[in-house]
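I'd like us to work through together how a protein chain folds, taking it slowly. To get us started, please write out a protein record for me. Go ahead whenever you are ready, and we will take it from there:
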Amino acid sequence: MSAASAPGARRLFSGIPSAAGERLRAGLTGDGLALFAGALTVLAFAPFNLYPFAIITPAALFWLLDGVSVGRAWWRGFLFGLSEFACGVYWLYISIHVIASAPLWLTFLIMAALMVFMAVYSALACALGVWLMPRAGLWRWIVALPALWTLLEWLRGWLLTGFPWLSLGYSQIGSFLKGYAPVLGVYGVTLAVMLSAGLMLSVLAPKVNLRSRLVSLSILAVLWIIGGVLASVSWTHPSGKPLRVSLIQGNIPSTIKWDPQSFQPTLDLYRKMTEEHWNSRLIVWPESAVPDYADEVWDDFLEPLEKEARAHGAELFIGVPTEDPATGAAYNSVISLGGHDGVYSKRHLVPLSEYFPLPTWARRWLQSMNLPYSSFTPGAVNQPLLQVAGYAVGTSICYEDAYGNEIMQALPQAAFLVNVSDDGWFGDSIALPQHFEIARMRALETGRYLLRDTNTGITAIVNNQGAVVKSLPRSTRGVLTGVVVPYAGGTPYQYIGNAAVVLGCLLLLFAAGLGRKWSFGNSQHE
C-alpha cells in the first residue's frame, strides 16, 4: 500500500475543514481575524517570549488571503500590521505624552501616523503576494509571501532612517531558529520564520495532496534541525583574559533628569557608586548619565574623576553630551577616561526626539509648545573605536543597537560590544524587554560579548551566543559587576551582511514568477 493511499496517513494529514474555513475567511469576519492575529503576534516578543506566535499568526494571515482579491489582501495585511504595532509600541504614549508632555491630540497623531506607515509594509507584502500568485498554494505560501515579507521588513529597517522594531526575527532569540542569526542576520531569521509559517500552513490547509503535506513537513523539520545545529556552533573564539566590569544603573527618572535641582545629586550619586567599584577594569555609565556638556563639567568633575580612575588602574565609559566649540554642534556621546581617552558620538539619531527632520517653521511651532527635545548632530560614520585595556570596543548608544549592519562596522577589530541607553523614556513598559531582546541579537550576530548599561534597565552582560549571563532588575538602582571575555574572529554575517538574504529573497520571487505558470502544489490540485 502506498503512502498516498494509507487511510491512517490521510486522517493524520487531512487538514483543517474546508467549508468552515471559507466561512471564517468571508467578509468582515476574515478582516477581524486578521486584526486579531496581528495583535497576538506581539506575544512572540519579549517580555512574553511565546516565540511560536511569530509563526502561527503569519500562517493564519496567509490562510486569510486565500480566495480574496488583491485589494482585500492589502486591507487584511494592513489590519494585521496596524494591530501588531498598536499593541507592540503603545509605549510611545508614555514617552511622548507622559514624559515629554506633548498634547494628547499631538501624541495620538504621531502614534497613528507611525502605526499606519508601519502597517503599509505588511499590506504591500500581502497584496503583492496575491497579485504575483493568484492561486493559493505552496508557491504562494512558501515562496512568494516569505520572500516579500522579509524584503519589506528589511526595507522597513532602513527606509527614512528605518524602524526595525518588531522585526519577526527578534522573537526567535530563544528558539532553534536563532542559529541562522550569525549566518544571515536577523532578517535571515525572519525568512526562516516566514518559511516555517508557510510550511505549517501547507501541512494543515485543505485541498493539498498528501505528498505535498509530507514534503512540507519534512522541509519544516530540516529547517529547524539546521537552525538548532547552527545555534551550537561557535563562530568566534576568546582572544584574551576576562576583564572585570561594573555597569551602573542610576535609575534617575526622566521627568527629573534634566531638572537643575537634580544636577548635583545626580553627579554625586554616580561618583559614589563608581568609587565603590574601583577594583573593576572597566566601569560604564548609561546614556547621558551626566546631564550637561562634558566641557561644562570637566574641571570640577570629569578631570578629577579621570585622575582617580588612573590611580586605581580603572577605565570609565561615561554617557555625556559633547559640543564642538568651533561649530557649536552638539552630540550625544560616550567618552572614555582613565586609559586610552576617546569619544564616540551617536551616528543614528532618533527622529522627533534627537532631531527634527521638519521645516524651520514646523520646528518653531513645536518649540512653542515647550516640548523637551535635543537638537543633536550625527557623529561621523568612521569614528575611531574606543579602547579598554588594549582592546577595541564596538560602542553604540541606545537605539543604534537596532541596526545590525551599523554595529557590524566595528568588526573585526572590536573585541566586545558596549551599548549605553536610557529607556526611562518608556517607563516600566514592554519597550524595555523588547529593546533588550534586540540588543541580544547583536551579540549573537557578531559573536561578541555585549555590555549593556541603561539608566532604568535592562542592564546586563550578554555572552557571544546572545545568552544573558547576569542582569539587574529594571526600575532599580544598582551596580552589575561581572566579567567580559574579549573575542576575535568573525561570523558569516560579518562578511556577507544582509546581501545574502536580499539576494535569496529576490531569487525566490523570480522562482515564484516562474511557478506562476505551473500548477504544482496549488490548492486546486489534489
In short: The CA atoms of residues 227 and 265 lie 50 Å apart.
